[in-house]
Fold:
Amino acid sequence: MFDLTTEEGKYLVQLARSTITAFLKSRKMPPTPSDAPTKLNEKCGVFVTLNSIRNGHELRGCIGFPMPDYPLVEATMRSAVEAATGDPRFSPVSLKEFESEVVVEVSVLTPPEHVEVSDPRTYPKEIKVGRDGLIVERGAYRGLLLPQVPLEWGWDEEDFLSQCCLKAGLSPDAWLVKGTKISKFQAIIFQEDRPGGEITPRPLKTGGTG
Structure:
């Protein structure tokens, strides 16, 4: 697991917020900060999630890099801007909305690990709701769900697999079909309690059956 202190997590969430604010004001990506902790310049996967507090805690945008292709600071900044302005499921976030209604969550990922099984029916035993995120791949189709998602929706492991297949644009039982690739990963998550508010680690409680 890529280890982060609470202070490093706070740095990333504050960086995501300040990057989005700067971009919405200028339409230009701000420069990468020179004062980032050394560890945060290592390559690592990351997702930035935006949630609206207007109607509870609704998803407002979520974009990221599942693979450790970029330094974490750079990947966080790029993900933040794309979550605010480039998620095709939502209209772009306005500056006014972002400052008053949107909370920021940053998930730092471990590298995905291919789940190998001899019988696809045993996949639910190889993953754990509350610990793992999932990636489903089949041909050109690909879907990813973060570890916190099944907890928010009350899914068990089979539901999680099916929903990740749907996210990939596949049938919900595609995980049972030979040739479908399943990968899992873990995440360290930090979130705001309100727009620009206190930042704390988000604990994941293990649930499910397997």
User: Anything to note?
Assistant: The chain is about 30% helix and 25% strand. Residues 130 and 151 are 6 Å apart (CA to CA). Residues 6-110+187-201 form a domain with the Glycoprotein, Type 4 Pilin fold (CATH 3.30.700.20).
